[in-house]
Amino acid sequence: MKTFDVVTCFLESEGKILLLRRSRAVGSYQQKWAGISGYIEEGNTPLEQAGLEISEELGISPDRLILVKEGKPVEVVDNQLDTTWIVHPFRFRVSGELSLNMNWEHAEYRWISPEDIAAYDTVPRLDAAWESVK
């Protein structure tokens, strides 16, 4: 089984969190709801990678991010993909005006109440990642 370290980031605003539906162009979990996520590239800390992913996927500069909480990593075993994901969760607020410019990795987004995560068809254990940063 392969193991990969990834980040999952939740942006919050006015008591809601941002979920994004993954596009059909991504390599895994197409059409599933998720936070902002990505592989941790060699040489980057999880926090550095979180900032890069938010910048790449939503066009928000890392210097506008306010870290609310860095959660304990969550292990996600996916036997179908023969992969173990070590998910490093983060929760951020954005300073200044919030405008989102989604890239190709996402098809749509929604601001939801955190307790509604279970109502969405999400990537595996997204609820556990949220619990880690709540």
Structure description:
- With 134 residues, the chain is an alpha+beta fold.
- It is 16% helix and 41% strand.
- It has 2 helices and 8 strands; from the N terminus they run ββββαββββα.
- The chain has helices at residues 46-58, 126-133; strands at residues 2-13, 16-22, 33-34, 36-39, 65-70, 74-78, 83-94, 106-112.
- Strands 1, 2, 3, 4, 5, 6, 7 and 8 form an 8-stranded mixed β-sheet that branches.
- The termini are far apart.
- The mean pLDDT is 95.
In brief:
With 134 residues, this protein is α+β, with helices and mostly antiparallel strands. The protein has one domain: Alpha-Beta Complex (Nucleoside Triphosphate Pyrophosphohydrolase), CATH 3.90.79.
Main sheet record: 8 strands, mixed
Q: CATH topology, what is it called?
A: Nucleoside Triphosphate Pyrophosphohydrolase
Residue-averaged pLDDT, rounded?
95
Q: What is the CA-CA span between the terminal residues?
A: 30 Å
Number of domains: 1
Assign the structural class, choosing from mainly alpha, mainly beta, alpha/beta, alpha+beta, or little secondary structure. alpha+beta
Task: Note the run of SSEs as H and E.
Answer: EEEEHEEEEH
Q: What is the CATH architecture annotation?
A: Alpha-Beta Complex
Rg, alpha carbons = 14 Å
- Provide a count of the helices: 2
Q: Report the count of strand segments.
A: 8
Q: Regions with pLDDT < 50 over 5+ consecutive residues?
A: none
Question: Helix fraction?
Answer: 10-25%
By CATH, the superfamily comes out as Nucleoside Triphosphate Pyrophosphohydrolase
Strand content: 35-45%
| Global morphology | globular
CATH class: Alpha Beta
